[in-house]
C-alpha cells in the first residue's frame, strides 16, 4: 500500500491544517515544549490527551487548556520508560475516544557529566527515558495505527542529534537524541503503509530544561545562536500542527530543525 494520500490534495490550505475530529496524545505534554505542542494541537481542533509522569497539577493544566481552546483535553499518568504502562495508557485513550490519530513522543530529560565519569545508572537513566521511552511510546502508537490503518507519529528529538553542544558535557543526551532521529527514519520506512513518522529538532527553547543551567553557559550559547535569543516554546506550535496535519501528507522520515540558525555556522 502506498503512503496515504487525501482524496482532495487541493483542499484550501487552512483546511489542510485543521485537526478537527482527530485524537492526539502528547508525552511530556504538561510542561515546556510538550505543553506548547498540546496547546497547538488543541487549537487546531484535536481532542488532546496530555501525558505526564510526575507533574502534580496535570489534571488542572488539562482542564485549563480545555477551557481556553474549547476542545476536550485530559491528563493521563504514564512513565515512558515503562513499556506496559505507556502501552496500556495509549490503548485506553484510543478506546475512550474511538481512535488515536496523532502521537507526539516528546518526554525527555537531560543531564551533564564528563563522558569518562558516567555511572551505569546515570547513563541508563537518559537512555531509559529519551531512547527506550521514545521507542515504547512509538511501538504502542504503531500497534494502534496499524489496527486503524492510519496514524501520525512525531518525535521531539534535538539539535543535539546533529551537533555537539558546548560547554556542557552531555554525551548520553546527544547520543540518545541522535538515536531518536535514526529511529524515526527507520519507522517511517517500516510503517509507511499505515503511518507517517517525523521529528522536530529544537535548538535552545526556554523551558525548565534550560533554566537550571548557569548564566555562564547561557551567555556562551547566545554567542553561538545567529538568532541571538532563546526560542519561546510557543514558537514551535506551527511545526507540530504542520507535521500532525494533512498540510504535510508527503512528509515522512524528516527531521525538522528549528534552531534560529544554531546548527548553520
Ligand atoms: N528545552 C530545550 O532547549 C530542548 C531542545 C531540544 C530538545 N528538547 C527536547 O524537548 C523535549 C521536551 O523538553 P522540555 O524542554 O519541554 O523539558 P521540560 O520542560 O523539562 O519537560 C520535560 C517533560 O518530559 C516529561 N518526562 C520526563 N521524564 C518522563 C518520564 N520518565 N515519563 C514520562 N514523561 C516524562 C516531563 O513530565 P513530568 O514533569 O510529569 O515528569 C515533562 O513534561 C525533551 O525530549 C527534550 O529533550 C528540549
From TrEMBL:
<dbReference type="InterPro" id="IPR036291">
    <property type="entry name" value="NAD(P)-bd_dom_sf"/>
</dbReference>
<keyword id="KW-0560">Oxidoreductase</keyword>
<dbReference type="GO" id="GO:0019594">
    <property type="term" value="P:mannitol metabolic process"/>
</dbReference>
<dbReference type="GO" id="GO:0050085">
    <property type="term" value="F:mannitol 2-dehydrogenase (NADP+) activity"/>
</dbReference>
<comment type="similarity">
    <text>Belongs to the short-chain dehydrogenases/reductases (SDR) family.</text>
</comment>
<keyword id="KW-0521">NADP</keyword>
<dbReference type="InterPro" id="IPR002347">
    <property type="entry name" value="SDR_fam"/>
</dbReference>
<protein>
    <recommendedName>
        <fullName>NADP-dependent mannitol dehydrogenase</fullName>
        <ecNumber>1.1.1.138</ecNumber>
    </recommendedName>
</protein>
<dbReference type="Pfam" id="PF13561">
    <property type="entry name" value="adh_short_C2"/>
</dbReference>
<dbReference type="InterPro" id="IPR020904">
    <property type="entry name" value="Sc_DH/Rdtase_CS"/>
</dbReference>
<dbReference type="GO" id="GO:0050664">
    <property type="term" value="F:oxidoreductase activity, acting on NAD(P)H, oxygen as acceptor"/>
</dbReference>
Amino acid at each position: 500500500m502506498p503512503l496515504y494520500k487525501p482524496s482532495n490534495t487541493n483542499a484550501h490550505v487552512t483546511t489542510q491544517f485543521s485537526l478537527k475530529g482527530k485524537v492526539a496524545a502528547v508525552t511530556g505534554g504538561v510542561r515546556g515544549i510538550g505543553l506548547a505542542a498540546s496547546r497547538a494541537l488543541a487549537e487546531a481542533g484535536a481532542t488532546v490527551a496530555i501525558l505526564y509522569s510526575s507533574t502534580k497539577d496535570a489534571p488542572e493544566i488539562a482542564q485549563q487548556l480545555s477551557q481556553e481552546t474549547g476542545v476536550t483535553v485530559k491528563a493521563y499518568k504514564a512513565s515512558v520508560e515503562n513499556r506496559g504502562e505507556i502501552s496500556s495508557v495509549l490503548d485506553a485513550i484510543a478506546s475512550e475516544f474511538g481512535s488515536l490519530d496523532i502521537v507526539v513522543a516528546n518526554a525527555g530529560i537531560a543531564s551533564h557529566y564528563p563522558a569518562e565519569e558516567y555511572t551505569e545508572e546515570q547513563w541508563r537513566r537518559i537512555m531509559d527515558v529519551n531512547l527506550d521511552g521514545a521507542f515504547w511510546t512509538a511501538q504502542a502508537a504503531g500497534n494502534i495505527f496499524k489496527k486503524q490503518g492510519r496514524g501520525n507519529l512525531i518525535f521531539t528529538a534535538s539539535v543535539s542529534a546533529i551537533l555537539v553542544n558546548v560547554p556542557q558535557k552531555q554525551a548520553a543526551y546527544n547520543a540518545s537524541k541522535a538515536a531518536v532521529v535514526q529511529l524515526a527514519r527507520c519507522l517511517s520506512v517500516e510503517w509507511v503503509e499505515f503511518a507517517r513518522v517525523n521529528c522536530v529538532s529544537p535548538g535552545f527553547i526556554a523551558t525548565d530544561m534550560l533554566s537550571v543551567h548557569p548564566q555562564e553557559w547561557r551567555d556562551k550559547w547566545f554567542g553561538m545562536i545567529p538568532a541571538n535569543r532563546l526560542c519561546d516554546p510557543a514558537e514551535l506550535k506551527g511545526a507540530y500542527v504542520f507535521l500532525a496535519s494533512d498540510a504535510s501528507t508527503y512528509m515522512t522520515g524528516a527531521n525538522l530543525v528549528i534552531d534560529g540558525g544554531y546548527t548553520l555556522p
